[in-house]
Amino acid sequence: MLRGFYTAASGMLAQQRRTEMLANNMANANTPGFKADQTSLRAFPEMLLSQIKEQSFPAGQKNVPTSYNPIGALNTGVYLQETMPFFQQGTLKETTLSTDVSLVDINLPINQNTGSTGSVFFTIANANGEIRYTRNGNFTLDSEGYLTTGSGQYVLDQQRNRIQLSSSEFEINEDGYITGANGETARLGIGYSDNPMSMVKEGDGLFRAEGELADAYTAAGVMFKMQQGYLEQSNVNTAQTMTDMMTAYRAFEANQKILQAYDTSLQKTVNEVGRIG
């Protein structure tokens, strides 16, 4: 009975964490460049059940098992194994602002080892000068004319240098080249990951990679372009997310009722079984 108690409790915990993940996706449905998280549930631990047949011997000798017939696996719980961002490109929304720029995926190779499609990212330097990556092209100019993210982190060029402009009157072509009002030029730094699932999601729409990503401009088979005056929207499917949240809630509720039934049975066992009338 206690095994079933723990199984139902693990199901509740897994569905609670899944609901929290889905709620975070819904909260970021309007965040530019946001990539929705996905989850995978896994049973644990698996026990293989077998039927043991014994051969009978004369009195005084022990019976010895002679054969094992597999019955099947028994799973005693479930847990949320991992969360992974979904890197499909979101829709583009026109803003007409010169500081807004979106990455448009044209052809990104499929990783033969993982089966996942690669992804390209803007290159960012965080407050500690560490390299980070993002799909959120909602940029702005700070008081010194540096191109930054909405949270004040520096956008880097192809050589990993900060980009400084004289004014917001600048142009970005499809190849990422920036031309300022006073003739200053730079090229947006774009990184390419052939396995974006290995990247770690951080706050403010940033991703961390192990080491620096390859230069997307020179990566084999990678085709993309920049589009100024547009923002990539979140790829969260709000209708599907609401459906998934309701499913997770119902699963949580079902496990809760099972847990209550086990609790009632245990209470009766303690208070009533074995009572001497």
TrEMBL record:
GO terms for cellular component: bacterial-type flagellum basal body. This is Flagellar hook-basal body protein. Residues 227-271 form the Flagellar basal-body/hook protein C-terminal domain. NCBIfam families: FlgEFG_subfam. It is found in: Bacterial flagellum basal body. It comes from Niallia endozanthoxylica. Keywords: Bacterial flagellum, Cell projection, Cilium, Flagellum. Pfam families: Flg_bb_rod, Flg_bbr_C, LlgE_F_G_D1. GO terms for biological process: bacterial-type flagellum-dependent swarming motility. Belongs to the flagella basal body rod proteins family.
